[in-house]
Amino acid sequence: MEFTAVVVILINILLAVNLAVGTTPIMVWWERRVSGFMQDRSGPNRAHIGGIRLGGLVQSVADMLKLAFKEDFIPSFIKYKFFFVIAPVIMFLCSFLTVGVIPFADRLEIDGVSYTMQALPIDLGILWFLAFAGLSVYGIVLGGYASTSKFGILSSIRAIAQVISYEASMGLAIISMLIVYGSVNLSDIAAYQGGLLFGFIPAWGVVMQPLAALIFIVTALAETNRAPFDLAEGESELVAGYHTEYSAMRFGLFQVSEFAAMSAASALIVTLFFGGYQIPWLNTQALHQHIDILIAASMIILPLIIYVFTKWIKKNNSWVDSNDPRDKESKILIRIFWGITIVVIAILGLLLISGLSSNGIHIATAMVQVSTFLIKFFLMNFFFVWIRWTLLRFRYDQLQLLGWKVLLPLALLNIVITATYVLVLGD
């Protein structure tokens, strides 16, 4: 295998692994900061390593270390120890593997050879996601059943009912999208959204199928077992549900699985409905032609973003005394951010002056598209966090009513309308 091919494969694998698992500490920190903002408090800012707090990010590291070094205790009353042990592993692997089929950029061409920007370049696409999303519930069911606890059993029953109720609507929403896209391959779907409707509207899935997008996002929230669909955990009702009897890293695997499932759902929503790596009005060919203009624009936009970010850091620490270590750390971090920004701008300036070769244009285009995908990905994760800290948990009857009497009929109606439109107009 050529060196270039190995490098591209490794980059895709690293991207997939980081999005599924590597971002977990960041997501935990982000969730705490967003919840703190919504509840008018500062959030985590005490834990530190040698005085370095990283704005509270070290708290996530501290939590991970705590789970890693805690005693891995299995209660004596557990009858099915094998199922008890394997349950969090099943849930983690299913959540982790779903990210592998997500395309991070259009096909990368180097020296006339085309490379797919996916960790798992397979044609199954959406079917792969549905398969593992459905299998992940087995981790919850086995964990709850093997716990030999009434809370775990009730949690398993709730999880099964919830998955059956919402996977039907999710599948039907996807069918309407497949009628439009004509393919289950996520690379083809992302490439399709690089076009324009009526010559000026981006052909994103949310524009062509807004009802399917709404149904899919709601059902994806339910699939990830996050509020307001966290009836399988329901702390106020079931203590902690299926992971009540778990401790140490087995408990940690359940938590990582939740964020991995959220990341996978966010990545798929972005790919199906929000253009994936596509920039509005700038498909791959347009990026190749105007990459110099885009680099120049990045040199202007990047300092503005860093300026807003550093202002937020200063405002967040406005109440801190000047002698407080947190104030000194924030000043150091601001200098580091500006230093990195200056270096990046200098590199971009040198690229503009020296000019890009054909391979350089393709690599720069891929980097822009990967960055675009990551921005959309983190915005969708932010939406998931925002929803969790905005809406209250549904009652069980409300959950079932929404799934069977609202989402399912709407999904069926959407398929009928979409199929009729395609059949009549031949589009």
Short description:
The protein is mostly helical.
Topology at a glance:
Elements: H1 3-22, H2 24-38, H3 57-69, H4 81-97, E1 108-110, E2 113-115, H5 126-135, H6 137-146, H7 150-181, H8 186-192, E3 196-197, E4 201-202, H9 205-208, H10 210-223, H11 235-238, H12 248-273, H13 284-316, H14 325-354, H15 358-388, H16 396-425
Antiparallel strand pairs: 1-2, 3-4
Helix pairs in contact: 2-3, 2-15, 3-12, 4-5, 4-6, 4-12, 6-7, 7-10, 7-16, 10-12, 10-16, 12-15, 13-14, 13-15
Description:
By secondary structure, this protein is mainly alpha-helical. It has one domain. The chain has helices at 3-22, 24-38, 57-69, 81-97, 126-135, 137-146, 150-181, 186-192, 205-208, 210-223, 235-238, 248-273, 284-316, 325-354, 358-388, 396-425; strands spanning 108-110, 113-115, 196-197, 201-202. Strand 3 (196-197) and strand 4 form a beta hairpin. The two termini are 41 Å apart. The mean pLDDT is 84.
Largest sheet: 2 strands, antiparallel
Mean pLDDT: 84
Report, as a whole number of angstroms, the end-to-end distance.
41 Å
Overall shape: it is globular
Residue runs with pLDDT of under 50 for 5 or more positions: none
Strand order in the sheet with the most strands: 1-2
Total strands? 4
